[in-house]
Amino acid sequence: MGQDISYLLERMTIVGDLEVASFVPWIQRHAAKLGLSHTISHMSSMRIELEVAGPEELIDMMEMGCSLGPIDVWVERIDRTAISGERT
User: How many helices (H) and strands (E) does the chain have?
Assistant: First the structure.
């Protein structure tokens, strides 16, 4: 028997001193490595907004990775908002 996996869709807002040219490709690679689907909806030097979908544990890993990020960014905070509920 297979194990049920819950998937979430969340909006992640990353705020800080962000180097968009290096951080956005880094975010895309990190999400792909985790197997998360993602869409970036806003990019600026102070805020990046993206929607991520996948298992909650992997979204948590994405948040942790982004908070540590590449050396040329300073993440002050990451806000997460659920867009839709769980589905299996």
Answer: 2, 4
